[in-house]
Amino acid sequence: MLIAVRVVVVTTLLLAALIIQYTVREVLPLNYLYIATGLTYALTLAYIALALTVPSRSVNLMIQTLGDLCVETLLVYFTGGLDSPFSFLYLVSVIAASMLLYRRGGLLTASGAAILYGALVDLMYYGVFPMPEQSLFLPIAWTSSRLYFNMAANFAGFYATALLTSYLSEKLQRTSEELDVNRQNLAELRALNQNVVESIPSGLITLATSGIASFINPAGANILQMQPAAVLGRHVTELGFFTPNGWDDARERLAAGDVVRRELDDFAGAAQSLGFAVSPLTTLDGVDAGYTLIFQDLTEMKKLEAEVRLKDRMAAVGELSAGIAHEIRNPLAAIAGSVQVLKSSSSLSTQEQRLMSIVLKESERLNKSISDFLRFVRPQEKHPAEFDVAASLSETLDLLENSPELQPAHEIRRAIAPPSFTLVGDGDQIRQVFWNLARNAVQAMPKGGVLTVSTSIENGSYNIVFADSGRGMSQADLQRLFQPFRTNFPSGTGLGMAISYRIVQEHGGRIDVSSREGAGTAITVTLPR
Q1: How far are the Cα atoms of 191, 336, 371, 378 from residue 332, in angstroms, in the given order?
Q2: Sign of CA dihedral 209, 213, 214, 215
Q3: How many C-alpha atoms does 165 have within 13 Å on its Cβ side?
Q4: pLDDT at position 524
Q5: Which residues lie below 8 Å from residue 183, measured CB to CB, with a gap of 6+?
């Protein structure tokens, strides 16, 4: 940059002089200008060669500054020495050195300028250097006092300029360094803030004071299953978090400094539960800048809570009812035995025989219900072994297709792939789960329908889906589906699904249910390998 500026300035001065000479049509004494320009161009070539061979920035700058001082001294000599108007060029070199090399470089340059200028005017004053023949300025007789005053004034100007410029340059350098540090810290802080915002698993939306979304993090877009562009610019009521009246109420609470917390089930019409909190957003100066909306997907947490409540309820029912069921079963067996003996008596009338048969039949049915309940409360000991779960599922469906419960209007479709897959578990208990789920699906289609049974392998687990086209279930039915003695069928005991749930849990698996009234039900059983 310094080389380029020097060449441009010297060339401009030369062209200006030539233009003046040809304009006024007088022969001006410009030989000294040609000499100075040629010397400058020669030094420029030397500077370029030096920059290519010497990597030190300070050395290059000092050599260029020294060359500038020599050229300036030559110009001062040719233009009258003490009377030369070009002595101000020394200040340009001092300023450039102070800015680029700071205080030491500025003082050295000021000293060099003082030495060269003082030596030149002294030598010219004492006649060692004669006044050049060609000069634009008429010489004036010098006195010793004028000489020393001029030298003192110039020297003071050189050093004052060096000190002042170097002080400002060093201060500017420190400010620039502090600014660079602050800029770096700010960039790191922004990067950290961006990483934190993008890494948190919770959704984050910033809202303007009007409720318009201005930012959403990746987790938030994933939870809402929307692209960020589809969220930005929309009102919070359009995103499904508030109704218009609800947002007005929330703004009143936020204006009072409160934090609005809510939970939404079936968010945006989907089977998704969200918990969210809205709080005021302020700048560092305390000025209101809008609101922050932080939300989380609570769907899985709600499912886990429901499972925990179900387990607690089932455990409580089991502990309370096991003893009662056992106590009922003992006298029931005595009653059934006594009725059997009485029925064999020949003195009973036909009506009495029929009543005895009804008592025995109902006793057997009650005993079966108690047996099922005890199986639920105190399940049989599991005997784990390797078995082909796909083959077991196919055999269970074969039995169902040939059972009297299946009507001509029913259809079972299979998509069992692969046809063979080995699990470790109790094959008999798993087969009971398949039977209960498939039989319930058929009962959910009293007027006929299609039961589709499909399988898949995912992450080492075997997934079985029982999807029917029946009447479906309401939200209340779904919540009590696995509770004992809760059934949607007139002939059911309400224990089949509870037993199935417990068997799958004991095998380390999971049962997920998706249903909608009038649109059928899909039950997915996941069994670890």
Answers
A1: 75, 6, 12, 20
A2: positive
A3: 24
A4: 93
A5: none
Q: Coil, helix or strand for 23?
A: helix
508-522 pLDDT, tens digit per residue, is: 898 988 888 888 899
Helix, strand and coil percent figures for the chain, each rounded to 5 = 60, 15, 25
* Cα dihedral value 373, 356, 342, 334, nearest 10: 10
Q: Residue for token digits 């360094």?
A: 177
Model confidence over 279-308: pLDDT tens digits? 998 887 778 888 999 988 888 887 787 777
The pTM of the full predicted model, rounded to 2 decimals, is 0.46
- Strands, E assignment, 317-432: 385-388, 410-415, 422-425
Segment 453-506, tens digit of pLDDT: 999 998 888 999 999 988 888 877 777 777 766 666 655 556 778 788 888 888
25: confidence class by pLDDT, cuts 50, 70, 90: low
3-state secondary structure of 110: helix
Beta strand pairing call for 449-458 and 410-415: parallel
Please report, as a single letter, which amino acid is at residue 392: S
CATH number for region 200-297 = 3.30.450.20
What mean pLDDT comes out for the span 99-103? Answer: 88
What mean pLDDT is predicted for residues 120-128?
Answer: 85
- Under DSSP, is residue 223 helix (H, G, I), strand (E, B) or coil? helix
Q: Is the pLDDT of residue 320 over 80?
A: no
Query: Does the structural domain 304-377 have CATH classification 1.10.287?
Result: yes
410 close to 442: Cβ distance less than 8 angstroms? yes
Domain boundaries, the chain: 2-177, 200-297, 304-377, 385-528
Q: In whole angstroms, what is the distance from residue 481 CA to residue 488 CA?
A: 9
Residue 463 has which token pair? 């997934």
Q: State the Cα–Cα distance between residues 304 and 307, nearest whole angstrom.
A: 5
The sign one gets for the Cα dihedral 44, 50, 51, 57 is: negative
Q: What SS3 class is residue 140?
A: coil
**CATH code, residues 385-528:** 3.30.565.10
Q: Which residue's entry shows tokens 């420029």?
A: 44
Q: What is the Cα–Cα distance from 47 to 182, expressed in whole angstroms?
A: 36
CB 446 within 8 A of CB 407: no
437 closest CA partner among 529, 525, 349, 515: 525
